[in-house]
Design goal:
Elements: H1 2-14, H2 20-32, H3 36-41, H4 49-63, H5 68-72, E1 74-77, E2 80-83, H6 95-103, E3 115-120, H7 126-134, E4 138-144, H8 147-159, E5 166-170, E6 182-187, H9 202-205, H10 221-229, E7 234-243, H11 249-259, E8 262-269, E9 275-282
Parallel strand pairs: 3-4, 3-6, 4-5, 6-7
Antiparallel strand pairs: 1-2, 7-9, 8-9
Length: 288
């Protein structure tokens, strides 16, 4: 196994893949279904021909810049493994900041009352699943426009034992959503400018769904829909948490202020110090 691993590292390095050793180890771990530590503990292990063929396939796919998450059909988020397909955006660590912001709120309610959460554009379902697991008595409505995306999210809800707490709805933002009031609305919407998409690395632009990346000409298209319309779906005093691009804080907070119906509008930075999440609360005297 050691020699095959060294070949894989060299192949990835030759192709200009960042962190070739780490990526080779991850591919080996996924292909052989073993922990990365076993790669070091059993370097003498003899690989079977089917194992070698699978590993060659994985390495060559990565050489062509296919993301590891799509090759392995798996990605870790919040210390949980989620099924990932090319239909969905690969979860990023930055989105955990949105989850942390959600969980940092005082979410305690009387035991007989559920906490109602709306997740717009659920993608792989990572936010919905973690919320259903972490928040007591949480009931999630998770939306997405594409049935293939909802199928992945539903699979992840079943995989993590929360399918009875997450209800999936095919909807373009609020278009096919039944009128109801929620304690909180969350979303990680597409926020890249259309003109910037071609500047992305091949790993992203050639493989991840454009629909999950393209935020329109100014990158704000979805925020312009979500922020005003969310007032019709939020309880008074309910809150909304949105992931944003690192340069969008001023523009997005301005959209909140322009409605006149939100308060406590705050920005949360990610661990690299970039603006990553906007939080706001619906005023108790707001309409709806």
């Amino acid at each position: 196994m050691k020699e095959f691993l060294e070949w894989s590292i060299g192949r990835l390095n030759q192709a200009g893949v960042d962190s070739p050793r780490m990526e080779a180890e991850v591919l080996f771990s996924g292909a052989l279904r073993v922990g990365r530590e076993e790669i070091f503990l059993r370097p003498e292990r003899v690989l079977t021909e089917p194992e070698k063929n699978l590993l060659r396939s994985f390495v060559e796919r990565r050489v062509l810049r296919e993301p590891v998450a799509y090759i392995l059909r798996s990605k870790e988020f919040w210390s949980l493994n989620f099924t990932i397909t090319p239909d969905v955006l690969i979860p990023r660590p930055e989105t955990e900041v949105l989850v942390e912001t959600l969980l940092s709120q005082n979410l305690k309610k009387p035991s007989e009352l559920s906490f109602r959460l709306l997740d717009i554009g659920t993608g792989s379902g990572v936010i919905a699943v973690v919320a259903a697991q972490e928040i007591h008595n949480c009931q999630v409505t998770a939306t997405d426009y594409f049935p293939s995306v909802l199928a992945v999210a539903k699979l992840n809800s079943e995989r993590h034992g929360v399918s009875d707490r997450v209800h999936f709805v095919k909807s373009n933002v609020f278009s096919h959503l039944s009128k109801a009031l929620y304690d909180c609305i969350v979303s990680n919407p597409p926020y890249l400018k259309t003109s910037n998409l071609n500047d992305l690395v091949p790993d992203v632009i050639d493989f991840e769904p454009w629909s999950a990346l393209d935020g329109g000409s100014d990158g704000l298209g979805f925020y312009k829909q979500i922020i005003p319309k969310a007032l019709n779906y939020l309880k008074k005093g309910g809150f909304i948490i949105l992931e944003i691009g690192e340069t969008q804080a001023n523009a997005v907070t301005s959209l909140f202020h322009s409605t006149g119906h939100y308060e406590k509008i705050n920005i949360v930075q990610d661990y690299s110090g970039y603006d990553r999440v906007v939080f706001a609360r619906k005023k108790t005297n707001a309409y709806g």
